[in-house]
Write a structure and sequence with these properties.
Distance between the termini: 61 Å
Largest sheet: 8 strands, antiparallel
Helix content: 55-70%
Number of strands: 18
Number of domains: 4
Radius of gyration: 31 Å
CATH superfamily of the largest domain: Multidrug efflux transporter AcrB transmembrane domain
Strand order of the largest sheet: 3-4-2-13-16-17-15-18
CATH architecture of the largest domain: Up-down Bundle
Structural class: alpha+beta
Oligomer: single chain
CATH class of the largest domain: Mainly Alpha
Number of helices: 22
């Protein structure tokens, strides 16, 4: 008899090969962000001479927002864009090639002031007469030029006498969309769509001037001057010309994002990673230590099954990084936080399945039947945990921007990879091991030889009260340190409220990790250290970003600490925030929407509002507790910390879902005979070993990151440590008591 085609193994092999191909060699495939790789720095100067004094600050802020949208077309993730002084803007973009760097500079510098100007009805006659010494241009008109391709493809120039002012004030401010289209022979054009007000003006202008030429003028140069054939009421226009595809795409991008004032590049440099090479090496080293600890633990505790789990974990990482490479996603520190969370959930998935196998074997089921039943029963809770985390990530991608969006993308990829590797792949491997007779029993160690009988809920009121009192203390500290002054209070670091940047020359190069360690010892831990190299040639400089007012003290300290370096100040400027108030607000709104979405999903999935309410209160507890402890220990918020807090939302719901699922299962098994107090106590005890194991493995990773990750990642790791402990605690003493309280009036 023919054997069936081994499609499961073929699918696994295909995914592994595809992921491996995308991943290797990593230095050519993976795009790294500015914080991990470094890139190119542009220092811009804005011409604010035509802007009212009171509106100059607003013009700079508007320019920063527009420039961020412009540079995103280059596939740049999380650029650094901040104000420097009163009229300059610093843009740092990760890893641009030389040709892309030149195109980026052109895109950045283009003002994109778009006007629609009527051409004089006798333009041809006036142009013919313009060479005469007695010629006087028509009153109210100016002579503008258009670059065209003449005979035999040579460059030529056309001239138009255009009105000084846009017709009925029709300018680019009314353009809602600008995009590239193609004519009948494939030449690129730029199509414009006006907003409602602009469409009405455009309709009136074209309707009143049929037969006249309407010049479309960009930054003082005529791009096209079509003859108006009829009133155009659809609110659409088109710029035709001899554009290349790249030029057309660039023009469309800048037309959608015009600047109020022109900018000019003053300086162009290559820059080291914003986190510092020393911090990156420390982070990689600590992550490796954590991964080794988890892999060793799984292999020792679960024996052969642990090796299967480790293989799935490696496959998960391979697929995640492979997809990032395949689709050219940019990997940054918040993105790494998403991968860390997906790894934590991968371990959680395997522990959940294996502990279920233990229970099924204890019920005297044969090995194959026990494995089948364990996967079947565990999948429901695994799916719920992954779905809620993916739901959170999708909302963050949809509503967030920059680092928040990067975190969401890597988290979604990692979680989908885990559902494949942690459930499908491991199941195939176990089936094969059992069928081939390699695995004849499911051996593993034990934390508890039997189910514990601890009266957790006996002290729930005391635990609940103490927990919220501690949160209150943390929130009071948060308020005192200016937490509600978004991006301004003492609790916010340089990322959120800006500071000073000082540029130093030096006679001897000092490693960034030595400078960072020294500054930390001297009480100046909050700093960015970055070496920069002028691209046009010149001397390398050291740039420090420091809290406002710390420049003199820091420079004096470094001059005394490293006398051979001979540090000298070349420049000192006030710089704005890297992360604007708007981005922080977006992150907070996205977080709030995520919490509400999780509450609704849990309530629907478990068929009762009390479960959704408990999940919401538990998540709020975890976030507030982590933020509170962060404030109580005198730390300041940075982008890595925001990434850590976002990670906790996805992680801490896991324990709660597991406990809730067991409560629901036991409720059915007992036919509702147990009161909720005993029902919840029993469920918590039955899932206790799983809770300890998963919390312990993630805690191992966090300890490694905290101990070996360096100063930059220390705050990130601290949030993880607090979050893991808080998430485990809240599933027992916050989420479960909420269900108990909801059913408080039911008879025992």
């Amino acid at each position: 008899m023919n054997k069936p085609f081994p499609w499961k193994f073929s699918l696994i092999a295909f995914v592994i090969l595809a992921a491996a191909y995308s991943f290797w060699p990593p230095q050519e495939k993976i795009k790294l962000g500015l914080d991990l790789k470094g890139g190119t720095s542009f220092l811009l100067k804005m011409d604010l001479s035509q802007i009212d004094t009171g509106a100059k600050g607003q013009a700079v802020r508007q320019a920063i927002e527009i420039l961020e949208r412009r540079v995103n077309q280059f596939g740049v993730s999380e650029p650094v864009i901040q104000s420097v002084g009163e009229d300059r803007i610093l843009i740092q973009l990760p890893g641009l090639s030389e040709d892309v760097r030149a195109e980026a500079r052109r895109t950045i510098e283009q003002t994109a002031y778009l006007e629609f100007l009527l051409v004089h009805a006798d333009n041809d006659r006036f142009q013919a007469e313009s060479g005469s010494p007695y010629f006087h241009p028509p009153l109210g008109y100016t002579n503008l030029t258009q670059g065209v391709k003449g005979a035999e493809g040579r460059d030529a120039t056309r001239h138009f006498f255009c009105k000084f002012k846009p017709e009925q004030g029709l300018t680019g401010k009314y353009v809602e969309r600008a995009y590239v289209t193609y004519d009948d022979i494939g030449r690129p054009n730029i199509s414009l769509t006006f907003n409602k007000e602009g469409a009405a003006i455009f309709g009136r202008v074209t309707g009143a001037n049929v037969g006249r030429q309407l010049a479309i003028v960009l930054d003082g140069e005529v791009k096209s001057a079509p003859v108006i054939q009829d009133a155009i009421l659809g609110g659409r226009a088109q710029i035709s010309g001899t554009f290349s595809i790249t030029e057309a795409q660039r023009l469309a991008s800048v037309l959608e994002n015009p600047l109020q004032a022109p900018v000019k590049v003053l300086e162009q440099r290559s820059v080291d990673p914003s986190l510092g090479l020393d911090s990156i090496h420390s982070g990689v080293r600590s992550a490796l230590y954590g991964a080794i600890a988890v892999i060793a633990f799984m292999a020792i505790y679960y024996l052969m099954a642990g090796m299967v789990a480790n293989a799935a974990l490696v496959l998960n990482i391979l697929i995640t990084v492979g997809v990032l490479a395949m689709f050219k996603f940019t990997l940054t520190l918040p993105g790494i936080a998403g991968i860390v969370l997906s790894i934590g959930m991968a371990v959680d998935t395997n522990v959940l399945i294996y502990e279920r196998v233990r229970e099924e074997l204890a019920a005297n089921k044969p090995l194959r039947a026990a494995i089948s039943a364990a996967y079947s029963r565990a999948f429901r809770v695994i799916f719920d945990a992954h779905f809620t985390a993916i739901l959170t990530a999708v909302i963050l991608i949809w509503m967030g921007s920059g680092p928040v969006k990067g975190f969401g993308v890597t988290l979604v990829i990692g979680l989908l990879a885990n559902l494949f590797s942690g459930v499908f792949v491991t199941r195939v491997i176990f089936d094969w091991l059992v069928v081939k007779g390699i695995m004849k029993e499911f051996k593993m160690l034990h934390i508890f030889k039997s189910v514990a009988h601890i009266n957790f809920l006996g002290v729930w009121k005391i635990a609940f009260l103490l927990s919220w009192l501690l949160i209150a203390a943390g929130m009071i500290t948060f308020v005192k340190r200016g937490g509600f002054e978004l991006g301004k209070g003492e609790v916010y670091g340089i990322d959120f409220k800006g500071g000073d940047t000082v540029t130093l020359s030096f006679a001897q190069h000092v490693e960034a990790d030595a400078i960072r360690s020294s500054l930390t010892e001297a009480g100046h831990a909050e700093s960015y250290i970055q070496y920069q190299h002028p691209l046009g040639g010149g001397t390398e400089v050291l740039e420090l970003k420091l809290p406002e007012g710390k420049t003199d003290a820091v420079v004096k300290y470094l001059q005394g600490k490293f006398p051979a370096a001979q540090f000298k100040i070349l420049g000192n400027e006030r710089v704005g925030a890297i992360v604007g108030k708007e981005l922080l607000q977006q992150a907070l709104i996205a977080m709030g929407v995520s919490l509400l979405a999780i509450m609704i999903y849990i309530a629907i999935r478990f068929g009762e509002f009390s479960y959704g309410l408990g999940a919401l209160i538990s998540l709020l507890h975890d976030v507030l507790m982590t933020v509170g402890w962060f404030c109580l220990t005198g730390r300041t918020f940075s982008m890595p910390v925001v990434a850590a807090v976002l990670t906790l939302i996805g992680y801490s719901i896991n324990d709660t879902i597991v406990v809730y699922d067991r409560i629901r299962e036991n409720r059915k098994l007992t036919g509702g005979k147990l009161n909720y107090f005993d029902l919840i106590n029993r469920s918590v005890n039955e899932t206790l070993s799983r809770t300890i194991l998963t919390a312990g493995t993630v805690f191992l990773c966090s300890v490694a990151l905290y101990g070996f990750g360096g100063r930059v990642l220390n705050d990130f790791a601290f949030c993880f440590l607090v979050g893991v402990l808080t998430g485990t605690y809240s599933s027992i003493y916050i989420a479960s008591p909420c269900v108990l309280w909801y059913h408080r009036n039911e008879k025992k």
